[in-house]
Write a structure and sequence with these properties.
It is found in: Cell envelope. Pfam families: AhpC-TSA. It is a single chain. This protein has about 210 residues and is α+β, with helices and mostly antiparallel strands. The protein has one domain: Glutaredoxin (3-Layer(aba) Sandwich). About 30% of the residues lie in helices and about 20% in strands. α2 links the parallel β6 and β7.
């Protein structure tokens, strides 16, 4: 039977399964969100904002991540080696992403002089919608456009994001130092970022 003729519950389940595979998620679907005509993901997995910080001895190297930003510029995670990098996975159709964006901007503004960079990963999204999201939210740091979800797949053997939104913090030596699953808040993010920024290296003073 053609996909278009399947009953709605079956179609929804199939789409949900495809989204989970692309995002490397391990839990069931939660919360319906329309994703426009991107082919994705009228479902997403919502995290609870829980965080894990990894001791230096337990940190794994971040994979090589590179691509084109929403502004059309080439950018790689390795360009920021020597800085702490907060990597945030988001989508324009994700309500928790919209809610946490002001927090990310606030922490970015406070910690950039301490050698902390931010990099968004826009996943499973429509390019026009993602660009409009950044304009409307006045996002000042770059985001890679990753419609297929290849960046999250690159982290599958280390510390996968597991939800939309998710945030990974990469230390100055390119190792994964922390993960937040779900939307974060100011206190939760600064409690993670501040000690990692203070670990040493050039311009490592905290604000």
């Amino acid at each position: 039977m053609p996909f278009s003729q399947l009953h709605s519950p079956v179609r929804s389940a199939l789409r949900c399964g495809a989204a989970l595979a692309a995002l490397i998620v391990l839990a069931g679907c939660a919360g319906g969100v329309t994703a426009g005509d991107t082919g994705a993901e009228d479902r997403y997995v919502a995290g609870d904002g829980s965080s894990t910080a990894f001791a230096v001895a337990d940190r794994q190297e971040a994979p090589e991540v590179a691509g084109e930003t929403l502004d059309g510029e080439e950018l790689a995670l390795s360009d920021h080696l020597g800085s702490v990098v907060v990597v945030n996975f988001w989508a324009s159709w994700c309500a928790p992403c919209r809610a946490e964006t002001p927090v990310l901007e606030e922490v970015y503004a406070e910690y950039r002089d301490a050698g902390v960079e931010f990099l968004g990963i826009n996943i499973k999204d429509n390019l026009t919608a993602a660009q409009a999201f950044e304009r409307n939210q006045e996002v000042t740091y770059p985001s890679l456009y990753d419609q297929p979800g290849e960046v999250s797949q690159a982290f599958r053997d280390t510390v996968p994001p597991q939800a939309i939104p998710s945030t990974l913090v990469i230390d100055r030596e390119g190792r994964i130092a922390a993960r937040i699953i779900g939307a974060t808040n100011y206190d939760g993010l600064t409690e993670i970022v501040e000690p990692i920024a203070a670990e040493g290296g050039k311009d490592a003073e905290t604000p």
